[in-house]
Write a structure and sequence with these properties.
With 553 residues, the chain is mainly beta. It has 6 helices and 31 strands. The strands form 8 sheets. The chain has a 5-stranded antiparallel sheet with strand order 1-31-30-12-28, with no helix packed on it. Strands 3-9-8-5-6 form a 5-stranded mixed sheet, with no helix packed on it.
Length: 553
């Protein structure tokens, strides 16, 4: 039997504007359910304030554990929409405890991120061994909170006479104001099993909202991926002696630049990229010695040590979760590798001369090779260390003078000016050495960092470890969150089960004329479900409508 709407409740998302008073921006977060188990995904819809809806702004989300440690981060691009949908994949080894998602807007004029909303979610690890004799079980079954006063009503219903696993479930949604007039807006839909949700604990909720200060600098939000932070000495003090800072991207063979100025702060714009990408930071080519290290502008988070409760219902949920994981492992239902994603354009390098090492007599080191063979790259020993120089052999002495500084070495995509390290490098794994010495080509390919010439060394080694001063400024930086859909994969054999506590999730639909007719395909599980619809009207009011759905064989 299907039940009609069981509750409708409303939050007023905007502060009414009066003469001379600015409304406080509001941010809302709707998730697919109220608590999670390790290995699951948190699917979310982030409802942006009006100030962040006119352009494709750059946001950033951090996942934070109970100890206040950042577990991961990603950029999010708003694409000019009012709702940004996304997800966080909880690690399978995540410890039991609260997990926070903290959302920020990237600041175009400061390295300080602009806070939007932080929400905490109870997460249980179903693989942890629990001694039930030592766990204090609580009675968490209680009544839901009273429904606040309504200004927007959200009605959710279905025309299906009965619901069965795998059925297509039609939904009819109506949105009206307090006078019964239809409203336009945006919404998100979750269909989940509510049976284990402890309503007596306010931490178990799928809806979060935050009121931002009226002077929040939302208009300063950036539209690009920015790598931001500060340069510090080993003592922790800021440094301001770096005239130019370059960030080298190994996959694209490109430098991106910033001028830290007197503050020691930097903000480097880079092209959009997904998943993660290595970047290495390096200073001005005429700096006598690298004397800084990079510290990023990640926010600091406090601990959240309040333990999570246990009940008979939660223990039953964890048992079911373990069974789902066994089935998923048997059928190979865990996340497949992501599809091909857009990548930044590569900087196609055209060396002025290439040495294929295998064509020459064997030498012990790179330095020995270039010492015995007459080339435009030379290594000389000065005291106990080697120094290097590079010149353009095809033009006048004047051109040679342009390359009078130390050349830049790139070895398997890592950057160093340490000629002694390169000279002593074992020649056996080296495949090619590429020289770049023509001034115009250097400028085009490497900009400022190529002023003194560039030597690119390619080896067959899986990884290279640079001297510590250089290696400490190589970072694997998370990029944009790869797109993903909640929709289950197509299953040709119709045998593989579709299981999970959430039967359906849609992060963003639009309503016109106050009415939306849509449908979803229910999973292969049965039980009592809640269909929850969160709506924000064009005027900024928030409504939540729900209906119960009994799914049986």
């Amino acid at each position: 039997m299907l039940f009609r709407l069981i509750r409708i409740y409303l939050f007023i998302a905007g502060t009414i504007l009066t003469s001379g008073i600015r409304a406080q921006p509001q941010v809302l977060l709707h998730t697919d359910k109220a608590f999670y188990v390790s290995g699951e995904k948190i699917w979310y819809s982030l409802y942006l304030p009006q100030e962040l809806q006119d352009k494709s702004y750059m946001l950033k989300v951090f996942a934070v554990n109970a100890n206040g440690e950042i577990m991961g981060s990603n950029y999010l691009r708003s694409d000019g929409k009012s709702i940004v949908g996304g997800y966080y994949s909880i690690p399978f080894d995540a410890a039991t405890g609260p997990l926070r998602l903290a959302f920020f807007a990237v600041n175009n004029f400061s390295v300080e991120l602009i806070p939007l909303i932080t929400a905490a979610f109870p997460v249980y690890n179903d693989l942890e061994k629990l001694d039930v004799t030592k766990i204090k079980l609580q009675n968490l079954v209680g009544n839901e909170e009273a429904i606040p006063g309504q200004n927007v009503s959200v009605s959710v219903s279905t025309t299906a006479a009965a619901a069965h696993p795998g059925d297509q479930i039609p939904l009819h949604i109506e949105i009206k104001d307090s006078y019964g007039r239809p409203l336009d807006g945006d919404l998100s839909i979750a269909v989940y099993d509510p049976n284990q949700i402890p309503f007596t604990d306010p931490r178990f909720t799928a809806f979060h909202q935050a009121v931002l200060p009226a002077d929040a600098p939302l208009r300063d939000a950036a539209t690009e991926v920015l790598l931001q932070g500060e340069l510090q000495l080993s003592s922790g003090r800021k440094i301001s002696t770096v005239e130019a800072l370059g960030a080298f991207s190994r996959p694209t063979n490109s430098f991106y630049y910033a001028t830290p100025g007197s503050s020691g702060l930097f903000s480097i714009a880079v092209p959009d990229f997904y998943n993660s990408m290595p970047f290495q930071f390096i200073g001005h080519p005429y700096d006598p010695k690298k004397n800084f290290h990079v510290v990023f502008n990640d926010p600091a988070f406090t601990k959240d040590s309040l333990p999570l409760p246990y009940s008979e219902e939660i223990l039953s949920y964890l048992d079911a979760s373990r069974e789902r994981k066994k089935i998923a492992q048997y059928f190979g239902l865990f996340d497949p590798a992501p599809d091909t994603l857009p990548k930044p354009a590569d900087n196609i390098l055209k060396p002025d001369y290439t040495y294929k090492i295998k064509d020459y007599q064997a030498f012990a080191t790179i330095g020995a090779f270039f010492k015995e063979i007459t080339t435009s790259l030379t290594f000389k020993q000065s005291g106990k260390t080697y120094v290097a120089s590079l010149y353009n052999p095809g033009v006048s002495v004047y051109a040679w003078e342009q390359l009078r500084g130390d050349p830049l070495f790139i070895i398997d995509g890592k950057v160093t000016r340490n000629a002694d390290f390169i000279a002593r490098f074992n020649l056996e794994p080296v495949q090619t050495v590429e020289l770049f010495y023509v001034a115009r080509n250097l400028r085009q390919a490497f900009n400022l960092m190529g002023n003194n010439g560039v030597v690119y060394v390619h080896t067959n080694l899986p990884d290279i470890t640079l001297p510590q001063d250089d290696e400490e400024d190589v970072f694997e930086i998370s990029g944009l969150l790869p797109p993903a859909s909640f929709s289950p994969p197509a299953i040709p054999d119709q045998v593989t089960p579709e299981l999970g506590p959430v039967a359906y999730w849609n992060p963003h639909l639009s309503v016109s004329g106050g009415v939306l007719d849509t449908a979803y395909q229910h999973s292969d599980e049965r039980g009592n479900y809640v269909i929850q619809v969160v709506v924000r009207s064009k005027e900024g009011s928030i409504g939540i409508g729900e209906m119960k759905l009994n799914v049986s064989y």
